[in-house]
Amino acid sequence: MDSEYDLKRALKIDERCFMRTYRRLPVLFVRGFGTRLWDHEGREYVDFVSGLGACVAGHCHGEIIAAVARQSSQLIHVSNLYHTRPQGELAEMLVRSTFADRVFFCNSGTEANEAAIKLARKYMRQVRGEERYKVVSALRSFHGRTYGSLAATGQAEKAEPFRPLPEGFVHVPFNDAAALQEAVDEETCAVLLEPIQGEGGVHVAEPSYLKGARELCEERGALLILDEVQTGMGRTGALFAHQHYGILPDVMTVAKGLAGGLPLGAVLATEEVAGGFQPGDHGSTFGGNPVACAAALAVLTVLQEEQLVENAARVGGYFRDRLLDLKEEVPGIIEVRGMGLMLAVELEGMEAGKVVEECLERGYVVNNIGRSILRFLPPLTVSTREVDGLMEALREILRSPGGGTSEGEAAV
């Protein structure tokens, strides 16, 4: 193998070897620490994506590194046929920290949502009969890319190439209480909602909507499943977003930030609902492996000891205010959305992907959702000074002639 691996080689390998599932930006990252990333040439960037919200404690946090190194030198994998200490301790910690009585571990958010859907259908079959099988979710939602979670996802363009999808999924407009009430009937086993629709554009649930969903599920005997894959682990300024709303779900899915960048997902449920699963109903070879669980234990410790959830609330509020100020200063921003350190701006008349590229040139890593939305998911360690730096970069980009405009468009 060649000793040198530079961007030119990476691009050649991408062209020759990978399935064409990603549109990667032309940068090769080789190191990270805290909120910073470095490319193969040594250039430094401030990271406002954090691995799509996964690196909540920042890159290469010392306590997480130590936990992973210690565990990987002792035991990496044995499967779920046996007990391991990190998995048991993490299950205890999650139960203590949430509404839940029981936990199932998997590897990702889509796997967590698949398991939650199976659990809801199995539980309702036991207590209500086979006719209670439908899952009601929201338009614009995103619950994953495997078949069950894709069927639950309310984005037709993602589902269309893969039809036929599993049956029994109903989609209604988000934040529309009347539509939700009409959709939940005697065949509904569960309502599946994101407190904030992340991949759908960072749309925040109205308090009355989530509270109404909780009441509706209780009234009609359906389960409330909250997808906190992206909103969990302190991202919104609370450990889990539903805590802002004063409600409790029957089932919750988490992933992304749970292990600080390692693959780990979980389904959390009440004792009653968790009883729907019996041995053999579901499983995962790698789910909850000792190394990932050791990392997650370290993440939860760091969140508490360094008050990162509080920092997400404080800096997130500052960040949102600065984005609102920017909206008044420059043309092209039509809306600012989000909560805590899960924020987005919607653009008009300019290409979000072009803005992302120009931010990268200035040393800031940001993300776009489609053509018009910029999304910000920095590590929870981000500072107001780093936010100020990004704001200056965005101000320059959006004010510059042609800044962010796509080919053939006039500058706004």
Question: Could you please describe the fold and organization of this structure?
Answer:
The chain has 412 residues and is an alpha/beta fold. The chain folds into 2 domains: 7-57 and 307-399, Aspartate Aminotransferase, domain 1; 62-305, Type I PLP-dependent aspartate aminotransferase-like (Major domain) (Aspartate Aminotransferase, domain 2, 3-Layer(aba) Sandwich), CATH 3.40.640. It contains 14 helices and 17 strands. The chain has a 7-stranded mixed sheet, sandwiched between helices. Strand 13 (333-339) and strand 14 (342-347) form a beta hairpin. Helix 3 packs antiparallel against helix 11, helix 4 (85-97) runs parallel beside helix 11 (290-305) and helix 12 runs parallel beside helix 14. 47% of the residues are buried.
**CATH uppermost class of the largest domain:** Alpha Beta
How large is the count of helical segments?
14
Secondary structure: helix percent = 25-40%
Largest sheet report? 7 strands, mixed
Q: Please tell me the total number of domains.
A: 2
Cα-to-Cα separation, first versus last residue: 49 Å
Question: Mean pLDDT score, rounded?
Answer: 95
CATH fold description of the largest domain: Aspartate Aminotransferase, domain 2
Give me the count of strands: 17
Tell me the structural class. Answer: alpha/beta
- Which second-level CATH architecture of the largest domain applies? 3-Layer(aba) Sandwich
Shape descriptor: globular
